[in-house]
Structure formats: structure tokens, C-alpha cells
Amino acid sequence: LAGPADFLGRPTPLVIGHRGCPARRPENTMASFEQAIAEGADMIELDVQLSADCQLVVIHDATLERTTNGHGLVAMHTLEQLRGLDAGGWFDPRLADQRPPTLAEVFEAFGQRTLINVEIKAEALCLPLPGWTVVELTLAEIARCGLERTTVVSSMSFDALLMARAINPRLNLAVLAHGPKPGIDTAMLCQAIGARAFNFHISSVTRDLTESLHRAGLLALPYADASVTPSAMARALELGCDGFFADDPAALRAMIDKQ
Ligand code: G3P
Ligand code: CA
Q1: Considering every ligand atom, which ligand is closest to the CA of 202?
Q2: Catalytically active residues, by annotation
Q3: 94 alpha carbon to ligand 1 midpoint, in Å?
Q4: Which residues form the GP-PDE domain (predicted)?
Q5: Alpha-carbon gap, residue 211 to 199, rounded angstroms
Q6: 121 lines ligand 1 (CB under 6 A)
Q7: What single string gives the DSSP state of each residue in 196-215?
Q8: Of 176, 203, 221, which is best to mutate to test ligand 1, by the most ligand atoms within 8 angstroms of its C-beta?
Q9: pLDDT averaged over consecutive 10-residue blocks of the chain (259 residues)?
């Protein structure tokens, strides 16, 4: 049972640049998103969190050490402090000018050129702030930039998705989880919130899962870490997945174009 032939105007299977193009550029930077689009990505994926002064910043970890030259929690730094950090030098000294982007900056540069999956990090709901703050601000930014039809909001926090749905009944949502939860019908869970897709770790791909999602009109979109092999990606597509959050968008594009 095949899935939807297209999604938000792009034919499936979708090439999704996972945090941009982390195979060749530092993740979640402007350089990384630019590279993913240049390599044929249909969509870019990014992670959003809040700075100490409630600004939306694009960065994956709750702490700064792995992907910047800063230290400590993202949420303990103001936007000005975060913008002073080097988010590229750890990957390549020639990219030391890369800063952690704001969500607005990414939307303004790429919103008209590609689809964007905004993952609201669950950590951003655990600040000493009402949990809906990061959700409200993200949705306001999507609306301000006129990107309601070309963005998807996902989160490991089902509460975040419930809040997003309560704020905007038309928003494209995706449920994000490692995999199906025991005793819960994943397709029904997605439908209950009006989601368009289920995003899950590649280790959970089965034909039963993709077919039950397709019967419900949903996309099956796996992600993986950098160690995923081309054969594992090809197998996921064979099992009916409708795209892939790829660290190497060019490799996935080449694989899909050969099919
Ligand atoms: O949205 C899919 C994927 O990005 C989730 O994993 O750890 O890369 O945010 P992670
Ligand atoms: Ca992510």
C-alpha cells in the first residue's frame, strides 16, 4: 500500500536535510541548510529552543559544548550571547563564522525555497516559563513569515503538539517518537491530533507500520544518526517509507533518482 504521492507540493519520497547537511557542514547552521538545498533536499529539518530572553534559537542540544565554543545550557544564555558563539569551527575552522541561527533568520533565508520541519525540542518546554511559550512563539514566527503551508511542526513532546493544534487548527503537524509505543495505535494517535506524518527512528521501520500509516493517509518518515548505511536507507524506502531525514541529502537524492 503506497503512501501519498506528494506532500506540500513535493513528490515523495522526500529528501529531508536532517539539521541541514551535517555530512558536509556543521549541523543547524545557515551553511548547512544552504548545502542541503544545493544537494536537492525537498525539506530541511531544524531544532528550536529558547534563549534566556525568550528568543527562538536553532540548536539541537540543551547544552552548548558539542556544537559551539560556548559552555553550559542554551537556556541560560541571552540571544546576544548565543550569537557571539562560533557554531562551525568545531566542524571546520573555515566555518568559524557560523552562528547559531535564529528561527526568523532561517525562515527569511530559506522559507520561500524549501519546506521546513521545525522540531520543538522537548527540553524547551521544561524551562521556568509556561510550557506553551516556545510553541506560541514558534507558531507566531511561522505566521509572521507566511509559511503556514510549507512548514511542519514536530516534537517528541505530545503536549507541545496539543498546544500547537489548540493554537492553530490548520498547522501541519508531525508526531515524533523513537517508534510506536506498546498498546498504542500510532496511526490513530497521529489522526487524533490531525498530524500529517509520523517521524520515527529507522530501527522501528516495518511494513506493518508504513501500511497502517498509509491507510490513514499519513506519511512514514524515518530518521537515523550519521552511522546509517545506504543499504539501511534503501531498505526503509523499500518498506514503504515516504522519505528520510538524511544527514547526507546528496546520497539520498542520488539513491531516489536511480529508482
Ligand atoms: O525530527 C527527526 C529527528 O531530527 C529527531 O532526532 O535527535 O536529530 O532531533 P534528533
Ligand atoms: Ca531534530
Answers
A1: 1
A2: 18, 60
A3: 26
A4: 13-256
A5: 14
A6: no
A7: SEEEEEGGG--HHHHHHHHH
A8: 176
A9: 93 98 98 98 97 95 97 96 98 98 98 98 74 90 98 96 95 98 97 98 97 98 90 94 97 92
